[in-house]
Write a structure and sequence with these properties.
This is uroporphyrinogen-III C-methyltransferase. It is an enzyme of class 2 (transferase). The protein folds into 2 domains: 111 residues, 3-Layer(aba) Sandwich (Cobalt-precorrin-4 Transmethylase, domain 1); 134 residues, Tetrapyrrole methylase, C-terminal domain (Methyltransferase, Cobalt-precorrin-4 Transmethylase, Domain 2), CATH 3.30.950. Helix content is 29%, strand content 19%. The N and C termini lie far apart (48 Å).
């Protein structure tokens, strides 16, 4: 993917003398029907769209013929548009008077850098507002018929990332002891190391685990297994990013579980 360049955009009568604004909009996990009504309405009003790779093509088809769509892909391990360049684009077009949509997969404030962008723009006097989207870690529940919380099984759910810029990690030991459902983003690049880390932290080898790639989209693929077999099964089924990994007894309640039903029911109810 080629990196876009900053080019002059003539100020039209539509935008002249109007204060611009940036909208950080969550596109949801993949299914265009999961785009919120508020997001769809605001997208229709925006004249510039800066679009992440994870925003589906069906959502881009909502754009009017006058909309300028600029792809600013950011994917781990792939050629990506720099964050500084994206910030400068947002500022440039907002100062020209445009309504700018920064369209992100999932939710802008859940592993989407929405907080960083809001702070950066606000510090420069640029109006900015966020519109929530459904993040993949929550959409995975309905995608698999899997309740992320369930009475007598899990009293809560936590969303974490296995990959950070500084190499820091969640406190896996505390999460293992909590009994909560854990939804892990960005854990596929080194699934062997992640599995070893989780086992060493106290997650049990027989803990049910679900891995779902391209949650809710037409390309969705999933498997359910146990933690001890996680890395092996992921490789055998050639699953990759973008995926979420769900750890917890609730996985045994999934409607699409591939484990033996008697086995997972016993695991889920044994809490």
């Amino acid at each position: 993917m080629s990196t876009p360049t900053l080019t002059a955009s003539p100020t039209t009568e539509l935008t002249k003398n109007r204060q611009g604004k940036v909208w950080l909009i969550g596109a949801g996990p993949g299914d265009p029907d999961l785009l919120t009504v508020k997001a769809a309405r605001q997208l229709q009003r925006c004249t510039i769209w800066l679009v992440d790779d994870l925003a589906g093509q069906a959502i881009l088809e909502l754009a009017s013929p006058q909309t300028r769509i600029i792809h600013v892909g950011k994917r781990g391990g792939c050629v990506s548009t720099s964050q500084q360049f994206i910030l400068r684009l947002m500022a440039r077009y907002a100062r020209q008077g445009h309504a700018v949509a920064r369209l992100k997969g999932g939710d802008p404030f859940i592993f989407g850098r929405g907080g960083e962008e809001m702070i950066w723009l606000t510090q420069r006097g640029i109006l900015v507002e966020a519109i929530s989207g459904i993040t993949a870690g929550l959409a995975v529940g309905s995608a698999l018929g899997l309740p992320l919380t369930h009475r007598g099984c899990s009293r809560g759910v936590v969303l974490v990332t296995a990959h950070t810029a500084d190499g820091s990690q969640p406190c896996w030991e505390a999460l293992a002891a909590s009994g909560l459902s854990v939804v892990c983003y960005m854990g596929m690049s080194n699934i062997d190391e992640l599995t070893h880390t989780l086992l060493a932290a106290g997650f049990t080898a027989d803990l049910p685990v679900a891995v779902v790639q391209n949650v809710s989209s037409a390309a969705q693929r999933q498997l359910t297994t146990t933690l001890s077999e996680l890395a092996q099964k992921v490789k055998a089924h050639d699953l990759g990013s973008p995926s979420v990994i769900v750890l917890g007894r609730v996985v045994g309640l999934a409607q699409h579980a591939s484990l033996d039903l008697d086995q997972v029911s016993a695991l889920a109810l044994a809490v």
